[in-house]
Write a structure and sequence with these properties.
The complex is a heterodimer of chains A (579) and B (169). With 579 residues, chain A is α/β, with parallel strands linked by helices. Chain A has 23 helices and 20 strands. In chain A, strand 12, helix 13 and strand 13 form a beta-alpha-beta unit. Classes of the chains: A alpha/beta (579), B alpha+beta (169).
C-alpha cells in the first residue's frame, strides 16, 4: 500500500475536516508541515506576528463562524505562547484544534532545544490534549481532535506532533468515523425532565429566562426568540449571552451581574422561577451566592453536567444542548400572563436606566451609540476592561450583529487579533474592534497581519490613559490610590505622589496615530464628539486595510452600575462617589 | 457547612501516558482532598482501574464525579458510596531493634490479628497486613504503642464491587 509522510497526512486530514484557513507560525520542528502546506492551495496559511495573537485570531475566526479554528505553532516558546489563548477558548467553549511541534520522540525528556511538555502544561486548560507517539496513530488522533473540539460543549484540543512523526511514512488512511469510549457528548434532550422544568416555568407568576453563551454557541437564537415571543417571558443575559434575543426587544431586560443593569439584577432578586439556559452561574453573574435569586425556584439547562448545581442549587437540572431543548419547548409553548411582572420590570428600567452623564464631551456611550446608528450589521470584538463592559451595555446586538468578547478568562490583548480572525472568517462583514489603550498594546503587533492581508477592520481604542477597570476599583474601594494603573507615568516627569491627571502630565506613549501610520494603516484621532461620525465614515470607506481610531475619553469615566465582588447583586453602586 | 466524609470511587480510564497526572491534577487544581489513589491495569490492558479515596461533602463529591466523567480519558466512574464492595489495603510494617521478648510479642500480634510475618532477622521483622484501611490504622497505633522504631509502607486501597445478590441464590 502507498505510504505517505505524517506531514502529508496532516494536510490531507485538514482538508477532510473542511479546514480552509490555518493560523500558523513557523519554527524548526514544524518546517516539514509548513513545506507540505505550501504544496497545496485549498488551505490558506495565515501568519500572525505572535503566537498569542495567532491563537486569539483562530478563536475569533471560530467564534464568528462556528467552525473549528486551527492553529499550528512550533515547540517550546511557540507552544507556551498559546497557553493564554487555550485557557481563554476553554473558558468560553470555543472549538480549536492546535498543533504544536515537538522535538523528535527520541529527544523528549532530554531538555532538548525548544522542548517543553506542552501537554502537561495545558492539561487543565483544554478539553483534550495528546502527544502523537506513533505515526500510525496520527490519522485517528486528528479525527478525534476535531470531533472532540466541535461536539458537546466545544473547546480547545492540543495535538503535540514530534518531528519524527511528521516525516515518518505510514498509511494514508484517514478514518471516517470516531469512537471514543470515554467521550459520549449529550445529544438527546431528556423530555421528562424538560417537561418538569417547563411546567415549573408555566406555573410562575414572575418567570424569568437567564441565558448565557451556550445559547449563542448552539445558534439557537431564532427558535429562542420565537419562544420568548410566544410565552412573553422576560429575558436577561450574561455578557456571553448578549444577543440571544435582539437586545432592543421589549422582553429583553438587560445584562445581569457585576455590571448588570438595575432592572436585570432586580428581576433576578424578585423572580419566582428562574429558567436558565447555557450559563455556568459564574461569580460575576451571581455575586454573593447566598443572596442570589432568593425567591426563585431554578431550572437549569446546560450541556455540561458539571456546570449544573455547582454554584447554585437547582431544582430541575436538565442536561441538554440549548438548541435542542428550546426546539422541544417550542412545541409546548403558550403565552403566560406576565403583564404585571413586565410592568414592574419596566418600572425598574425607568427608575434607573443605563446611561452615562451627557454633554461631557466624548463619552463611550455616545461613541457606541454612533456605532449602532451607523452600522446596521457588524461583528463587534472587544478587548477586556471598561470598554468591554460599555460594549456589553450599549451595543445593540441582534441577528445581524455579533459580539465577541473574552468572557470567562478576561484576556487583555484578545480584541485586535480576534477581530482579525473574525474578518478572515467573514470577509464581507464590517468588523469593529473596540479596545482600551492598555489592552491595545498587548497584541498591537497584529496590526501588521491586518495590513498585510488588507483586512478592513476598524480598530477603535478608547484611550483614557489608564488601566481603567482597575483604576475604577482603586477609585471606589482603595481610597483613590492609583497604584500602577497610569499609562502616562514617566521617570523624572511625574511627582512621587500623583495629584491626578492634568496638563502637566507627560505625553501618552505610544502616539497611536503615528503607530498606525508606521504600519501603513490609516490612523485617526478623535477628541470631539462631532468628529465621531466622520471618523467612522472614513474608516468604513477604507476598504483596503485596517483603520485605527483613537478616541480620547475622560479618565474618570467609570462603568456603572457596579456590584463589588462577593456582594449580593442587589447591592449596586450607581455613583462614582461609591457606596 | 456540609459534612465532610471519606468516600470511595473506582474509575475506569484509558491506560495512556498522562492520564494519572490528569486525574491527580484535577484534585489539586480544584482543591479536592485526595486521600488515596491506586491504579493498575485491568483484564483489558488498554484500560486501567483506579481506586480513589476522597474526603468531601455531598456537593463537592457530586462535582468530583461530574468533573471526572467529563474527561475524555475517563471511561466510567463507579461510586462505591452505596455499593457493597470488597476493599483491602496492603501495608508492610518493619519493626527494628527488637529483643527476643519483643519479637515474641510481635508474633503474637500477628497471630491474633491475622496478619503475616513475612521476613525476619535477629533484631528486625516485617509483617504484611492485607486488611481494611481502618484496621491498618489500628494496627499502626498498636505497633507504635508496643515498639519504638517502626517503618510503615502503605499501598492504598483497592476495591471491587461485591458479587451481585441475584447471582447468589
Amino acid at each position: 500500500m502507498q505510504q505517505i509522510t505524517g506531514a502529508k497526512l496532516f494536510v490531507n486530514a485538514l482538508k477532510e475536516e473542511g479546514v480552509d484557513k490555518i493560523f500558523a507560525y513557523p519554527g524548526a520542528v514544524v518546517a516539514d508541515l509548513f513545506d507540505e502546506i505550501g504544496k497545496q492551495d485549498d488551505i490558506q496559511l495565515i501568519l500572525p506576528r505572535h503566537e498569542q495573537g495567532l491563537i486569539h485570531a483562530a478563536d475569533g475566526y471560530a467564534r464568528s463562524t462556528g467552525k473549528v479554528g486551527v492553529c499550528l505553532v512550533t515547540s517550546g516558546p511557540g507552544a507556551t505562547n498559546i497557553v493564554t489563548g487555550l485557557a481563554n477558548a476553554n473558558y468560553d467553549s470555543v472549538p480549536l484544534v492546535c498543533f504544536t511541534g515537538q522535538v523528535p520522540t527520541g529527544l523528549i525528556g532530554n531538555d532538548a532545544f525548544q522542548e517543553v511538555d506542552i501537554i502537561g502544561i495545558t492539561r487543565n486548560i483544554c478539553k483534550y490534549g495528546v502527544t502523537v507517539r506513533n505515526r500510525e496513530d496520527l490519522g485517528r488522533i486528528i479525527k478525534e481532535a476535531f470531533y472532540i473540539a466541535r461536539s458537546g460543549k466545544p473547546g480547545p484540543v492540543v495535538i503535540d506532533l514530534p518531528k519524527d512523526v511528521q516525516v515518518a511514512p505510514g498509511s494514508k488512511e484517514y478514518p471516517e468515523k470516531v469512537s471514543i469510549r470515554g467521550y459520549k457528548p449529550v445529544t438527546e434532550v431528556h423530555v421528562g425532565q424538560l417537561k418538569r422544568g417547563f411546567k415549573l416555568l408555566k406555573s410562575a407568576k414572575r418567570p424569568l429566562f437567564l441565558v448565557g453563551g451556550g445559547l449563542n454557541i448552539s445558534r439557537a437564537n431564532d427558535s429562542f426568540l420565537k419562544l420568548v415571543d410566544i410565552m412573553k417571558v422576560p429575558v436577561i443575559s450574561t455578557i456571553m449571552g448578549r444577543g440571544a434575543i435582539p437586545s432592543d426587544h421589549p422582553y429583553f431586560v438587560g445584562n445581569v451581574g457585576m455590571h448588570g443593569s438595575y432592572a436585570s439584577n432586580m428581576s433576578i432578586m424578585n423572580c419566582d422561577v428562574l429558567f436558565s439556559i447555557g450559563t455556568r452561574f459564574n461569580d460575576r453573574i451571581t455575586g454573593d451566592l447566598n443572596e442570589f435569586a432568593p425567591n426563585a425556584r431554578i431550572v437549569h439547562i446546560d450541556i455540561d453536567t458539571s456546570a449544573i448545581s455547582r454554584n447554585v442549587t437547582v431544582e430541575v437540572p436538565i442536561v441538554a444542548d440549548a438548541g435542542n431543548a428550546v426546539e422541544k419547548m417550542l412545541e409546548w409553548a403558550t403565552p403566560l400572563d406576565t403583564g404585571e411582572w413586565m410592568n414592574t420590570i419596566n418600572g425598574w428600567k425607568e427608575e434607573r436606566p443605563l446611561e452615562m452623564k451627557k454633554g461631557k464631551g466624548l463619552s463611550p456611550q455616545v461613541i457606541l451609540e454612533t456605532v449602532n446608528e451607523m452600522f446596521p450589521e457588524y461583528i463587534a470584538v472587544t478587548d477586556v476592561g471598561q470598554h468591554q463592559m460599555w460594549c456589553t451595555q450599549y451595543l445593540e446586538i441582534n441577528s445581524k450583529r455579533q459580539l465577541l468578547t473574552s468572557g470567562g478568562l478576561g484576556v487583555m490583548g484578545f480584541g485586535l487579533p480576534a477581530a482579525i480572525g473574525a474578518q478572515f472568517g467573514n470577509p464581507e462583514a464590517q468588523v469593529i474592534c473596540i479596545s482600551g489603550d492598555g489592552g491595545a498594546q498587548m497584541n498591537i503587533q497584529e496590526m501588521a497581519t491586518a495590513v498585510c492581508h488588507k483586512l478592513p477592520v476598524i480598530f477603535c481604542i478608547f484611550n483614557n490613559s489608564y488601566l481603567g477597570m482597575v483604576r475604577q476599583m482603586q477609585q471606589l474601594f482603595y481610597g483613590k490610590r492609583y497604584v500602577g494603573t497610569c499609562l502616562r507615568w514617566q521617570k523624572d516627569k511625574c511627582p512621587d505622589h500623583c495629584k491626578g491627571p492634568g496638563d502637566q502630565c507627560p505625553p501618552y506613549v505610544p502616539d497611536f496615530v503615528s503607530l498606525a501610520e508606521s504600519y501603513s494603516a490609516l490612523g485617526i484621532r478623535v477628541t470631539d464628539p462631532k468628529d465621531i461620525k466622520l471618523a467612522f465614515r472614513d474608516a468604513a470607506a477604507n476598504k483596503n486595510g485596517p483603520t485605527l481610531i483613537e478616541f480620547i475619553i475622560d479618565t474618570d469615566e467609570i462603568v456603572l452600575p457596579m456590584v463589588k465582588g462577593g456582594n449580593p447583586i442587589s447591592s449596586m453602586i450607581f455613583s462614582p462617589k461609591g457606596v | 457547612m456540609a459534612e465532610m466524609k471519606k468516600r470511595w470511587m473506582s474509575l475506569y480510564v484509558e491506560n495512556q501516558v498522562g492520564v494519572l497526572s490528569k486525574i491527580s491534577g484535577l484534585f489539586s487544581a480544584k482543591m479536592y482532598n485526595l486521600e488515596s489513589l491506586t491504579v493498575g491495569t485491568t483484564e483489558d490492558e488498554s484500560v486501567s482501574r483506579m481506586t480513589i479515596g476522597v474526603a468531601a461533602d455531598d456537593v463537592t463529591y457530586e462535582q468530583i464525579k461530574k468533573q471526572l466523567n467529563r474527561m475524555v480519558e475517563v471511561i466510567k466512574v463507579i461510586d462505591l458510596e452505596n455499593v457493597p464492595a470488597h476493599m483491602k489495603e496492603i501495608m508492610f510494617a518493619k519493626i527494628n531493634n527488637i529483643n527476643a521478648e519483643k519479637m515474641t510479642e510481635l508474633f503474637q500480634i500477628a497471630q491474633v490479628f491475622g496478619v503475616r510475618v513475612v521476613d525476619m532477622g535477629t533484631k528486625t521483622a516485617t509483617i504484611e497486613c492485607v486488611q481494611t484501611e481502618s484496621k491498618n490504622n489500628e494496627m499502626i497505633k498498636l505497633l507504635k504503642a508496643k515498639f519504638s522504631t517502626i517503618e510503615i509502607v502503605r499501598g492504598g486501597n483497592v476495591a471491587i464491587e461485591s458479587v451481585s445478590v441475584t447471582d447468589r441464590y
